[in-house]
Structure formats: structure tokens, C-alpha cells
């Protein structure tokens, strides 16, 4: 039997319900206004509706968490880029020196990124930084900078990597936490 779908409205939540062969009711909040419910094939609609109603507060909280930032306009992009470049001009030489990387010919590229704040190719010493960093505090840019530079010594994020981060930037975990609340988009 093909999966059956229907849109239901519970208070201010519009949800798409799909009945399919599965064990338990499940709600996923994809984006504000995009709530999806999966229900076992034989679940009556009133049971689904009650399930959603009982979780309205949770759905509202989830919707506010997944709020997708609107893309930067051209002007905003230019501003972010020049601000990030300024911060980088200030911090990069200091950290390259401090970490003993002067001979590595490290080069930086500012790129639009959607899922990561930075990346590093150790073989070429190329480091890419997310354009959106230009909208954050310099201490968060500094964290990403030191993180990516540290990858020139250590590939993964294991104990050796963490030990280097601890030595270089003792509060890096707090900075990472602050950064994780933002989106690189
Ligand atoms: Zn990394």
C-alpha cells in the first residue's frame, strides 16, 4: 500500500502527516512552518492530532532553534569580507609566528560556506574561512584560525590536536560553543 499523506492544522502548527509502515509516531521540524509527522499505517488521525497537540510547545521551541538565517545581501557580504580580512590581517601573522609556521607559506581564502566555519588542506597550507565569520566576534575568528592552523600539525580532532589547542588557546572550547550557536551560512 502506498504511503498516505495529509496536512493537518493544530493551533498555529501546520504539519504534513505521512502514514507508513513504522512502529512509533515521530515529529520532525525541518524549518519554521515545515513540520512533518510520520505515523504507523493504522494510526487514526485523531490520535495523530492529539500527539501533535501534546507536543506543541516542543514544536515551537524546535522551530525557533532551526530558524534558517536569510542569505546575506551583496552589501552585507562586502562588509563581512572586509571585516574578516581586517581581523585576519591582524591575527594571522601573530599566530603563524607563535605556532612556528612562518616557513609553511600559509595562504587564506575567504569563501561562502554553508556547513563549516573553516577548512584546511595541510599539503598546500591553504586555509579557507567562512565569509560569515566576518559577522562574528574577533575571538571566534581567532578560534577558527587557530583550529585550522593546528591542522597543519594534526589531521584529526583527537587528543594530540586537543592538546595543541589547549596549549595555544586554553578557552577554545568556550569559543567553539559560542560559535556552534551561530550558522556559517
Ligand atoms: Zn578541524
Structure description:
With 185 residues, the chain is α/β, with parallel strands linked by helices. It folds into two domains: 4-65, no CATH class; 74-180, Metalloproteases ("zincins"), catalytic domain (Zincin-like), CATH 3.30.2010.10. 42% of the residues lie in helices and 23% in strands. The strands form two sheets. It has a four-stranded mixed β-sheet with strand order 1-2-4-3. Helix 3 (74-98) packs across helix 4 (138-150) and helix 4 (138-150) crosses helix 6 (172-180). The two termini are 40 Å apart. Zinc ion (ZN) binds next to loops. Zinc ion is lined by residues 147, 151, 157.
Q: Which key phrases capture this entry?
A:
Zincin-like, 185 residues, elongated, alpha/beta, single chain, 2 domains, binds zinc ion
Low-pLDDT sequence parts: none
Radius of gyration from CA coordinates: 23 Å
> How many distinct domains?
2
What sequence of helices (H) and strands (E) makes up the elements?
Answer: EEEEHHHEEEHHH
Strand order of the largest sheet: 1-2-4-3
User: So, CATH architecture of the largest domain?
Assistant: 2-Layer Sandwich
Shape: elongated
How can the largest sheet be summarized? 4 strands, mixed
Question: How widely separated are the two ends?
Answer: 40 Å
Cofactors and ligands present? zinc ion
Amino acid at each position: 500500500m502506498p504511503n498516505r499523506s495529509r496536512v493537518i492544522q493544530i493551533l498555529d502548527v501546520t504539519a504534513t502527516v505521512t502514514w507508513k509502515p513504522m512502529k512509533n509516531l515521530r515529529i520532525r521540524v525541518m524549518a519554521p512552518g515545515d513540520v512533518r509527522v510520520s505515523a504507523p499505517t493504522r494510526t487514526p488521525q485523531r490520535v495523530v492530532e492529539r500527539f501533535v497537540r501534546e507536543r506543541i510547545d516542543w514544536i515551537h521551541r524546535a522551530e525557533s532553534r532551526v530558524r534558517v538565517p536569510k542569505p546575506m545581501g551583496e552589501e552585507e557580504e562586502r562588509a563581512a569580507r572586509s571585516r574578516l580580512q581586517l581581523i585576519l590581517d591582524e591575527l594571522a601573522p601573530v599566530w603563524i609566528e607563535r605556532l612556528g609556521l612562518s616557513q609553511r607559506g600559509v595562504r587564506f581564502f575567504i569563501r561562502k560556506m554553508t556547513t563549516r566555519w573553516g577548512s584546511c588542506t595541510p599539503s598546500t597550507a591553504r586555509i579557507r574561512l567562512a565569509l560569515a565569520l566576518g559577522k562574528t566576534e574577533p575571538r571566534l575568528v581567532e578560534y577558527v584560525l587557530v583550529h585550522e592552523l593546528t591542522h597543519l600539525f594534526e589531521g584529526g580532532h583527537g587528543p594530540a590536536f586537543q592538546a595543541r589547542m589547549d596549549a595555544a588557546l586554553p578557552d577554545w572550547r568556550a569559543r567553539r560553543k559560542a560559535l556552534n550557536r551561530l550558522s556559517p551560512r
